[in-house]
Amino acid sequence: MTTHVLSDTNVMLGRSMRHITRSLDTIITVTIMPIAFLLLFRYVFGGAIQANTDNYTNYLMPGVLLIAIASGISYTGFRLFNDLQGGIFERFNSMPIARSSVLWGHVLTSLVSNALSCALIVLIGLLIGFRSSAGVLAWLAVVGILLLFTLALTWIAVLAGLSASSPDGASAFSYPIVFLPFVSSAFVPTDTMPAPVKAFAENQPVTSIVNSIRALLDQQPVGNDIWIALAWCVCITVVAYALAMRAYKRKIS
């Protein structure tokens, strides 16, 4: 049974990835905004921001990567909505395939496409001064956190795609998520914020994730931030997955 599910999921992944490879402009479009923010904060606002660091590009990089992921997952909801409207789900349900493989195909495609987007942004960062002395294990930890963050947001995208009544609604949910890094420690230290804003910034998931990634890349102690970040990602994934599967069953019943 497990082999059957994995095989079906691999087929669905291949189908979704073909859509991506046939329209690479999707990945380019997703990365334009984060790269623009990276350049804007580095060369326009960077001189006026006191972040207590000698390399502001290093300080920016974790937040920009999260913005890229938040932007990228909107396409998952959009593609899923189009599949629903096109009747492809009904066609798949008439075939002897695992039903969950249809959703997992979209989810895994999101992980791959967002990984490519993040790799492109890191490359641009290296060109404008991003440097890291992190070792292999630290980089693997960073990749793991980014993948888990992507997974959590992708299941939210799946839920949006299954619940939306229009293509715009299937992707518009990502706008508040994209905004979260701006009210976190991604671009400025939270100590510089007014008390109510600081309280929100320090108790939302992006701050702990950004702090963890930044510490790993700078070879600094991560403290409790990494456990808080992992807890946020796991909890969001579990809740979004449960709600998405419930919505999926309603759609195909």
TrEMBL record:
Q: How does it sit in the membrane?
A: Multi-pass membrane protein
UniProt KW Transport keyword:
yes
Q: Where would you find the membrane-spanning parts of this chain?
A: 24-45, 60-81, 102-130, 136-160, 172-190, 226-244
Q: Which GO terms describe its molecular function?
A: ABC-type transporter activity
Question: Matching Pfam families, A to Z?
Answer: ABC2_membrane
Subcellular localization: Cell membrane; Membrane
Keyword set includes Transmembrane: yes
Q: Which domain of life is it from?
A: Bacteria
Q: Which InterPro entries match?
A: ABC2_TM, ABC2_TM_bact-type, ABC_2_transport, Nod_factor_ABC_transporter
Name of the protein? Transport permease protein
